[in-house]
Amino acid sequence: MSGKIPPSRSALLLCDLQNDFIHPKGAYGRAGLCAPEIAAIPERVRVFADIMRARGGSIVSTHFTLVPGKGREPLISPHLKALRPFLGKGDFEPGTWGHRTVDILQPTDFAVEKIAYSAFYMTRLEWVLRKADIQKLYVCGIVTNGGVASTVRDAHLREFDVTVLADGCAAFSRETHDAALASLGSLCPVITIAAAIAEIGIP
User: Fold this and answer.
1) At what angle do helices 193-200 and 41-54 cross, to 10 degrees?
2) Percent of the residues in the chain that have a pLDDT greater than 70, as a whole number
3) Which of 4, 59, 66, 110 is deepest in the core (most CB within 10 A)?
């Protein structure tokens, strides 16, 4: 189906490109957990996002969320707390600066909160995509082996036409990124941003 669905029924899905992940003053940046490959993603994706908007497509952002509990203490899964012990009050909290998509990729047409790797797990994402008559997803974001991979697999199961932007994704190591893309390549096209631009056409 790739190439047959018009941009007006397509969306760029931004997986977790949030200030708390990307910005030096975000939760991960303050903890010193940064990777140049991840930091470079928003600028690289911006060109395609602008063309998608101009061609009548949609921009959908997913937002990893730590739901605040009593006293605004975040509800954190034990495995995540063990993996990222620095996460605390205010991090990835809805309505905060850290929770928002990075400025360079705004505005988005739809924003979906998520609490696990997949943006489809216990969220309204599928409902939004169906109501907006979106059939094709170009997926980018972080991390390739986590949120991106899980979301792409769930999109495939739901019979969306999905394409991964290889240079629009990143992980904390190049080896992990490459392995994840190789695995996803058995499910859907994995192409460059330049190829995606050629696919939808420049307005």
Assistant:
1) 0
2) 99
3) 66
**Residue 6, SS3 per DSSP:** coil
Cα separation, 17 vs 182, in Å, equals 22
The whole-angstrom separation of Cα 200 and Cα 125 is: 23
Q: Which amino acid is at 27?
A: A
Residue 150 has a pLDDT of 98
CA count, 13 A, side-chain hemisphere, 148: 32
Domains and CATH numbers, the chain: 7-200 (3.40.50.850)
**112-137 pLDDT, tens digit each:** 999 999 999 999 999 999 999 999 99
Measured in whole angstroms, the distance separating CA 132 from the mean position of its chain's CA atoms is 18
Q: Which residues pair with 90 in a beta bridge?
A: none
Question: Is 184 in contact with 149 (CB distance < 8 Å)?
Answer: yes
Q: Is the pTM of the predicted complex or chain greater than 0.90? A: yes
Return the structure tokens found at 7.
Answer: 């941009």
